[in-house]
Specification:
This protein is of the alpha+beta class. The protein has two domains: 251 residues, 2-Layer Sandwich (Creatine Kinase, Chain A, domain 2); 95 residues, no CATH class. 42% of the residues lie in helices and 16% in strands. The chain has 13 helices and twelve strands. The chain has an eight-stranded antiparallel beta sheet with strand order 2-3-4-5-1-8-10-9. Strands 6-7 form a two-stranded antiparallel sheet. A two-stranded antiparallel sheet has the order 11-12. The longest helix is centred in the middle third of the chain and has 26 residues. The protein starts with 12 loop residues before the first helix and ends in a 12-residue tail after the last strand.
């Protein structure tokens, strides 16, 4: 059984490292590939999925830096709760929670992970802090180019790389940004933005990805299709819209400095985070979002920066609550979970204070 302690970092590097943007939390790139002469996921027999796993594993072990320094985790050997822990870290998807012959390969800093027998045979994903689309894609390309010398990917001259879902065909590339859009939300402009994005070839998802809620005003924005565009066009398109939304968000935050009810809500959220004895996940995300805004507007003075506050987005999830407190998973019920979550947040903000004098000036980063 793999142990939580075998994941080296309390939180992944991509969410803990400092970067300039108070809005763009991270950027992600992911490619989908299938191996020629193997049926796709829902047509694979157990024997075929095992053969496929062995074939991909053998290929990965021929890449020296992967074989020597990455963590290989066969998911069928892990508990459901540990797999939920990996999902909370954005390392696996729902497709890998069930079934046999599924595996992930993780870079020890958790910038990169490879999912085997997911919706497609092979998915390579890289996440970096802030605005780093090209860096993320270059990392993927460095791995894919070496794998392509060993494996034969399913490719069609007309349609490009073939995938289980038609929306991924072509380059097989999805890129996304995770953004804190609290200003647009509080000023009731977020629906118009997301509707416009949906009509312009983008997908908007919540904090935990596909099918998740928009908790804490965290939104993930990605390209909807990869067919008909090359990789550079996709990267340029998503980066351009990310920068446009960041600019709109910063303008909305300026307006919030003159909004007394919002300033009051920031103060109330800070006090809730500092003094609560129990917090459920949804409420905690809402209050952390407001405290992050308060730090960005320089209304909250605290040793953790707004970037540091991003760590809490990972740390307060249910399986991380158990991990951080070294609790026996069987002893974690919803009551204990909420108490431990409140304690983590309180300890994290123990040195913070409201800084009302900042109401007299606009934050320089805006």
């Amino acid at each position: 059984m793999l142990n939580f302690t075998q994941i080296n970092n309390v939180v992944p590097r991509w969410i803990s490292e400092s970067h300039p943007s108070p809005v763009i939390i991270s950027t992600r790139a992911r490619i989908a590939r299938n191996i020629k002469n193997f049926p796709y996921l829902f047509r694979l027999t157990d024997k075929q999925s095992m053969d496929l796993l062995e074939k991909i594993n053998s290929s990965l072990h021929q890449i020296p830096d992967l074989a020597g320094s990455y963590i290989f985790i066969k998911l069928s050997n892990q508990s459901h709760k540990f797999k939920q822990f990996l999902k909370e870290r954005f390392l696996i998807t729902d497709y890998l929670l069930k079934g046999e012959n599924k595996q992930i390969v993780i870079d020890r800093n958790e910038y990169m992970n490879i999912m085997i027998n997911e919706e497609d045979h092979l998915r390579i994903q890289v996440i970096y802090p802030g605005l780093n689309f090209r860096k993320a894609y270059q990392f993927i390309e460095s791995i894919e180019s070496r794998l392509e010398n060993i494996l034969e990917f399913d490719f069609n001259e007309e349609f490009g790389y073939l995938t289980s879902c038609p929306t991924n065909a072509g380059t097989g590339l999805r890129v996304s940004s995770m953004m804190h859009l609290i200003g647009l939300k509080l000023n009731s402009k977020i629906k118009q933005i997301t509707d416009n994005l949906a009509g312009s070839g983008f997908t908007v998802r919540g904090f935990s990805g596909e099918g998740s809620k928009f908790l804490g005003a965290i939104y993930q924005i990605s390209n909807q299709l990869s067919l008909g565009m090359n990789e550079k066009e996709i990267l340029d398109k998503v980066e351009k819209v990310t920068l446009e939304i960041e600019k709109m968000e910063l303008l909305e935050r300026k307006e919030l400095l003159r909004n007394e009810p919002v300033i009051k809500n920031i103060m109330e959220s800070f006090e809730v985070c500092k003094n609560s004895t129990a917090l459920d996940f949804v409420s905690a995300m809402t209050h952390i979002s407001m405290v992050k805004l308060g730090i960005d507007l320089k209304l909250v003075k605290t040793i953790p920066s707004a970037n540091d506050m991003n760590k809490l987005l990972i740390m307060i999830q249910p399986m991380h609550i158990a991990f951080l407190n070294k609790e026996n998973l069987k002893n974690i019920d919803i009551v204990n979970e909420n108490k431990l979550r409140a304690k983590i947040i309180k300890d994290f903000l123990s040195t913070g204070e409201i800084c009302l004098k900042s109401l007299q000036q606009e934050p320089s980063r805006l």
